[in-house]
Design goal:
about 45% helix, single chain, 10-stranded mixed β-sheet, Spore Coat Polysaccharide Biosynthesis Protein SpsA, Chain A, 10 strands, about 20% strand
Length: about 325
């Protein structure tokens, strides 16, 4: 029997969380058939034993991918292999340390996509739960839009993986550069968003955990900026011509952010190199550099001039 939806759960060292994630998927109330595909990436804790027990309890609903060794690349190979194993018309994403809070979530999102053929993706708001005691927050406050496009998504990722359902098979094989990007969710969404708009349901239906074990939240500002640059540098060559100008603008902005990250670490040569790269992209795109870029150029040049004068004065005095 064909499945309407596949729930793709990737997990590694999630023994504290995985049962709640899987149970939240099992508790969905739907009028269609769905499966849960769990990619377990050879955890070093009890995660594997837990998912095997869950599978034994619900063999008609759960399929397991139990890798003999950790596939590496920040879980990217496990992520892709799990997606490839999915057989549903739609795929819902859920990381093993997050969980869904609304039993009608899948039904709501499938109904939306069924009635909005122009959309390739549907997402909703989530609660951000911080394990360090920071008060919980809700995503979605930055925009009241119902429909987004790839042009919005090019400016940065605003969808949490546990909120996303998308149509399966919108593009062919994952490009080679995908496996080198740490920000896999955003790259996947960009590849899918070339084939349709992005629908937004303004309801909280999941919890996204922020904790030390979370891969992306553990990355510092510099590493995040590097990954954004890498993705956009590769993606701009794959996009349809109608999106390329906007993609170049986003690419220039990403190099600006990288420059600022380098500047904050006092890596001035790298900051200058990244800022000049941003400027060159703007000029090749026949775009006027924005105020932020010009402001950063002035700030950087002022800093370099100050340091030069300080060193000269120090040598004279000594």
């Amino acid at each position: 029997m064909s499945k309407r939806v596949s729930v793709s759960i990737t997990t590694y060292n999630h023994e504290k969380y995985i049962a709640q994630a899987v149970e939240s998927a099992l508790s969905q109330k739907v009028n269609f058939s769905y499966e849960i595909v769990i990619g377990e990436d050879c955890s070093t804790d009890r995660t594997r034993q837990i998912v095997v027990a869950l599978k034994d309890a619900r063999p008609e609903k759960i399929r397991l991918l139990l890798h003999e060794k950790n596939l590496g690349r920040w879980g990217k190979f496990n992520f892709v292999e799990t997606l490839k194993a999915c057989q549903g018309e739609y795929i819902a994403l859920l990381d093993g340390d997050d969980y869904w809070t609304d039993p009608n979530k899948l039904q709501r999102q499938v109904d939306f996509l069924e009635s909005h053929s122009e959309c390739s993706i549907c997402f909703h708001d989530v609660t951000l739960f911080y394990e360090d005691g920071t008060p919980a927050a809700t995503s979605g406050g930055t925009s009241n839009k119902d429909i987004f496009t790839i042009e919005d998504l090019l400016t940065g990722n605003f969808m949490f993986a546990c909120s996303v359902v998308f149509r399966r098979g919108l593009f062919g094989e994952f490009p080679d550069w995908f496996y080198d990007s740490k920000m896999g969710d955003w790259a996947l969404h960009l590849l899918n968003a070339q084939h349709g708009k992005v629908g937004h349901l303004k309801e909280v239906m999941a919890v996204y955990r922020v904790h030390e074990g979370g891969f992306w939240t553990s990355q510092n500002q510099l590493e995040q900026a590097k990954d954004q640059v890498q993705i956009l540098d590769h993606l701009v060559n794959q996009l349809d011509d109608k999106y390329k100008r906007k993609a170049r603008v986003a690419r220039a902005n990403s190099w600006q952010h990288l420059s600022e990250a380098y500047f904050q670490r006092s890596e001035i040569a790298n900051a200058r190199r990244s800022l000049l790269k941003s400027l060159r992209i703007c000029l090749s795109n026949k775009s006027i550099p924005n105020r932020q870029l010009l402001g950063r150029l002035i700030k950087l040049q002022t800093y370099i001039s100050y340091e030069w004068l300080r060193l000269r004065f120090t040598r004279v005095v000594s």
